[in-house]
């Protein structure tokens, strides 16, 4: 049986990708940089199988079959991976001709799909990684990132762990538009992330259509591409290598805010953040104001960032996460029990509290459930190959779990 299972992580950008110069090849207008999050908490799990008895390529996402559109993104990724397998077989005639067989692919996300939690990133990275394992390709993650990129731009960064840059590249072919690791997760394992889930329903304007509208209409985007992002890419890479959280936080928050400013500068304007998102910004800004006081060490202690949706991702050194959760819970009381993967709070659970000197008037206390849930995770590694026992395809070649 020719089959392989892999998991792939989500990544959340600190320097945002927003805009394409080539919509078919998915080539961006600017470079971007992200933190890969730990697959122990958020992941896509994908099994691929090639079999001479299959009659067409098929894919099931969360137990529901998705159509593979003939020239769509999914079909492109599968075709590109088959091309690499074919090249391998041409060099080694003893290798089975797997590229001539159809594939069945099943994938599950252990978090909400299409809810602004970067499921397309982990999803296309897991698809690419599982086909690479199935086809026994010797390709390095950077080479595979060229293919995942054609599924969803941000997916190329999920092929690597740690701190990852997607270099925009300049070639029309896109061959230099790939992901590279700035530093592995082991370089700075102290970076933790708290995801504040404000909404887990499908968003109004997809990233794909929203960013093209911005390219077509926003003058501010041109300034960002030419005069802002190149310097920020250099500065945040240097901050990561120096483990300088204060600088990392300053750049991350500035870039999130500029990304949402170019959305507002789009015609018609796009609004991804809501009042809850903005209240979280106010809370983190106040927390940093206190941290920046000379008597408190003079440094920022947390960084917010928002993708194309209202959910906040707060990056912070591990030592501050407990204080941050208590502060968020103070303003945004929880209905769901906080799943405490790092055991920060005892059996009694999360308690609301504010740091000394914090001005409680920066935000009101929201009604319970305004922030639906909190996910605590940290920087993590790149895709993992799993054993056959983890396959999400059954021996019959169909998903083990179909949605009822
Ligand atoms: N595990 C997966 N395997 C394959 N494709 C997936 C997987 N998960 C998500 N996708 C694809 O990604 C699409 C969702 O992407 P979309 O950009 O709308 O949401 P998102 O990635 O959660 O949000 P965002 O990119 O704004 O953070 C799905 O409809 C599906 O086509
Ligand atoms: C705001 C972002 O999350 C946008 C992600 O856009 P996508 O990668 O989802 O877009 P497509 O390439 O069209 O699939 C910023 C980022 O991840 O860098």
UniProtKB/TrEMBL annotation:
Entries under InterPro entries matching the protein: GHMP_kinase_C_sf, Mev_decarb, Mev_diP_decarb, MVD-like_N, Mvd1_C, Ribosomal_Su5_D2-typ_SF, Ribsml_uS5_D2-typ_fold_subgr
Keyword match Lipid metabolism: yes
Domain Diphosphomevalonate decarboxylase-like N-terminal: 8-177
GO BP annotation list: isopentenyl diphosphate biosynthetic process, mevalonate pathway; sterol biosynthetic process
EC number: 4.1.1.33
Keyword annotations from UniProtKB, A to Z: ATP-binding, Lipid biosynthesis, Lipid metabolism, Lyase, Nucleotide-binding, Steroid biosynthesis, Steroid metabolism, Sterol biosynthesis, Sterol metabolism
GO molecular function: ATP binding; diphosphomevalonate decarboxylase activity
Source organism, top-level taxon: Eukaryota
EC main group: lyase
Domain named Mvd1 C-terminal: residues: 193-385
Similarity annotation: Belongs to the diphosphomevalonate decarboxylase family.
Protein name: Diphosphomevalonate decarboxylase
